[in-house]
Amino acid sequence: MLTRHVAGGTALSVLLATASLLGVAAEPAAADSAATLPITSYSDMVVDGAHRRVFISTTDNKVVVADYNGKTVAQITSEPGAAGLVLSADSSTVYVALPKADAISAIDTATLRETARYPLGVAPRHLAMTRHTIWFGYAADGSADLGSLDLDPETDPTTPPTTPPPTTPPTTPPTDAPTPTPTDPESTPTPTPTDTTAPSPSPSDTPTDTPTDTPTDTPTDSPSDPPVTTSPTPDATTPAPPAPFAADTPTRTTNGAVVTLGQGGPHTWSTAPMLASSPGNPDVVAAGTPVQSPMELQVYNVSSGHAEPQAYRWNANNAGNMQDIALSADGKQVLVASGAPYFQQAYRTSDLADDGRYTTDAYPNAVAVAPDGTIAAGIDGAYEPDVYIFRPRSDHRVRTYDFGVVGNPGTASALVAGGLAWAPDSSRLFAVTVDVYGQHPTLRVLTDPTKSVTAVTVSAPSTAKRATKITVSGKLTATTAFPAGAKVTVTRTDLTSPKGTSLGAKSVAANGTFSFTDTPTTGGGVTYTATYAGDATHTAGSGKRVVQVSRLATAASVKTNRATYAYGSTATVTGHLGKTGRSRVLSIWAQPAGGQKKLVKSAKVNAAGDLKVTYRLSRNTTFWASFAGDAVSAPKSVARSVGTQVSVSLAVSGNYRKGKVGSTSYYWFHKKKSALFTTHMTYASGRSQRLDLQVYYKGRWYSSGSEYFRLAITGTSRVGLAGPGESGIRARVRAVYVKGSSGDRLNTTTSTGWKYLYYTN
Question: Would you give the end-to-end CA distance of the chain in angstroms?
């Protein structure tokens, strides 16, 4: 079973919101592709635009690599407890936090091989990168703090003298460098994660002073029990005074890089802080405590190469259970997703003052910023949209996504904490989801996520007279306004133009409406399709409307040469078509009782308007003569049903001779001799034959009884009749199939002739 994780491996319960507090009408899921991931847990995700690959870390001790369609292409193993990920500015290297190895590894994005490993002496969980320095939140010896790994210390004049290297030399690269493995999950070991980080609280664990509804814009920042610090707690919205880098902060070299620990500043961390950075402001790193309630935030100035506290805030907006953190594209906002409140919070980087919000729904759990500034905000919700797209500094939603389980769209699927990442060109948004049981982790690829979805409606009369002008109108709708001068292209599809006829481009008014007139000259279903090609901020969209245009009535008939046919005989069927437009094609169809309707022949009628076919019969059959219609004449279909008898015979045995009584031929039996009647009849499942017996008395035949007998699968039935014990008795017998009473209605009632019996001494 998959365990939900924030980046770095902290377990998070699956929280299912049962109702949308905002009443948002979600759009259908818009994933261009979705593929199951070979993982049981999720840690972090980064996107390499240069090689069009997605890297996903998992506490299964590996990094999974997928393509831009979500398909797994490699698995890089031997990455103990793989947690936070960062990508180098040139996209050549992905760095992986390895909390189970107290190290950070470097993976070549071209070869997908680990090329270096940097021992830290502490367990890193969350990563951020500015210029050539990797910042990591770590835990060690029951405490947590912030550290840095300077990959190019020679370019940093502020780097202090380093201590001697560790006694155990680093491996560069490891001798057992992992290689991409087959995508088959069975071929890659997936050990059970040993991460012992305490699980996050559910929404019910939020502090009692945290409101259950969306808080007001006025935050309550004074904690009832503030953290213990060595200096006075700064005002919630006042920048913390810069603290110069301490010369005695522990540093050491490792694999050519410089590791510096203990840079968290005067405010201690209860667990490894989550980190965020942005190329738009490489002098800033934001940090926050995951899962903790109330929430704690810190901004650091890292322009000197070392972390100097810039701003601090405790219990902002009564927030708690933080799941994700990001910086805006320009680095001027800290964006936070936490279990409460029910919106993604925005704070000013300079002093952590409130700076807007991005309203989503219950249990925000992810936030990601595209290079163009677009914001993707996610929630842990099963019955409302999972992802919301916003323009920078605007609470107006561009679009939403609501995920279902792949292959079963009627069921719910939930976004994992921190499970969003953008492609560098903002053309794709990647999302990792699980089902409501926390299983079946799936990578979803959402294309054009920055564009508002275009809906096109087309209105027209449902019916119209041929060659009469009609008005067709429509409207474009989206969550954002359409540009001035927008147009839709219109096509008309009908019987004479099945591939469509262009009616040109129609201008769209400022309110999104359009209108035009047309005179359809073709009868039947006429489809008007309006298409919007899309633009920089809108997806393409189309809508259609069908108008039933009147046609002239068509005369047609069908006849057969008989009403009832013997089994296996051939019927002659003649279809007739009256006056029509261009089409003179008639189709003859046949459907045997209990069988499928099949086309016998479709062809032009002769000069008299007739089409003749023959058809061999074994069951009651209905024939149709059908005309599909044309631009002038309406469709027409007429039917005729005929009966078909069964094949049946009756044989008599046990007699000692045959002879006539009067003019009738009889089977002669001794008065105590039994007669055997053998019936052969066309077989059908459950079918029975009926035997009728009559006795002659004083010049008339009287019924002596009738009885049904089941046919064997061979269509045979054998029945014996005991002798009467008297001479001079005359009797007669016959076998009958009775439509309905014999067990089916596949044929018409059929009987054999009478067989006559005469009993003597």
Answer: 90
Residue ranges in the chain whose pLDDT is less than 70: 1-32, 156-250, 405-410
Report in angstroms the alpha-carbon separations of 522 from 342, 492, 582. Answer: 56, 11, 12
Task: Give backbone dihedrals phi and psi of 317, rounded to 5 degrees, phi first.
Answer: 55, 25
- d(C-alpha 512, C-alpha 474), whole Å: 8
CB of 147 closer than 8 Å to CB of 261: yes
Q: Are 329 and 392 in contact (CB under 8 A)?
A: yes
Q: Whole-angstrom Cα distance, residue 333 to residue 337?
A: 13
Instruction: Take residue 80 and report the two structure tokens written for it.
Output: 């103990």
Decide if 70 contacts 445 (C-beta within 8 A): yes
**SS3 letters across 274-343:** EEECCCCCCCEEEEECCCCCCCEEEEEECCCCCCEEEEEEECHHHCEEEEEEEECCCCCEEEEEEEECCE
Phi/psi for 673 (5° steps) reads -90, 135
pLDDT tens by residue, 640-659: 999 999 999 999 999 999 99
One-character DSSP codes across 118-170: EE-SSEEEEEEEETTEEEEEEEETTEEEEEEEES-GGG-TTPPPPBPPPSSPP
Contact of 2 with 36, CB cutoff 8 Å = no
Q: Which of 70, 132, 133 lies closest to 263, judged by CA?
A: 133
- Cβ neighbours of 168 (radius 10 Å): 7
ω into 341 cis (within 30 of 0): yes
Planar angle of CA 702, 705, 708, nearest 5 degrees: 145
Structure tokens at 188: 């890659």
Sequence letter at residue 78: S
- DSSP lists the bridge partners of residue 672 as none
Other C-beta atoms closer than 10 Å to the C-beta of 706 total 13
In the block, tokens 């016998």 appear at 600
Structure-token pair, residue 567: 């089994």
Name the residue among 205, 9, 202 with its Cα closest to residue 99: 9
pLDDT for position 156: 55
Q: What is the sign, positive or negative, of the torsion defined by CA atoms of 149, 151, 154, 158?
A: negative
pLDDT of residue 249: 57
Distance of CA 227 to the CA centre of its chain: 46
Tokens coding 72: 């797994």
- Rounded Cα gap, residues 487 and 491, in angstroms: 13
Q: What does the buried/exposed string (b/e) look like for 49-76 if buried means 16 or more CB atoms within 10 Å of the residue's CB?
A: bebebbbbbbbbbbbbbbbbebebebbb
DSSP 2-64: PBEE-TT--EE------S-SS---PPPP-EEEEEE-S-SB--EEEEETTTTEEEEEETTTEEE
Whether 355 and 343 have beta carbons less than 8 Å apart is answered as no
Show the beta-strand stretches assigned E in 508-609: 513-518, 524-532, 541-549, 556-560, 564-565, 570-577, 585-592, 598-604
Phi, psi of 67 (to 5 degrees): -90, -175
Nearest to 402 by CA among 385, 390, 388: 385
For residue 324 the two structure tokens come to 């994700």
pLDDT of residue 188: 35
What's the rounded Cα separation, in Å, for the pair 14 and 2?
Answer: 10
Sequence-ordered list of residues with C-beta below 8 angstroms from that of 209, at least 6 positions apart, any chain: 224, 318
Answer yes or no: are the C-beta atoms of 346 and 333 closer than 8 Å: yes
CB-CB contact of 481 with 537 (8 Å): no
Quick one: how far is CA 607 from the chain centroid?
Answer: 55
CB 755 within 8 Å of CB 694 = no
CB 84 within 8 A of CB 138: no
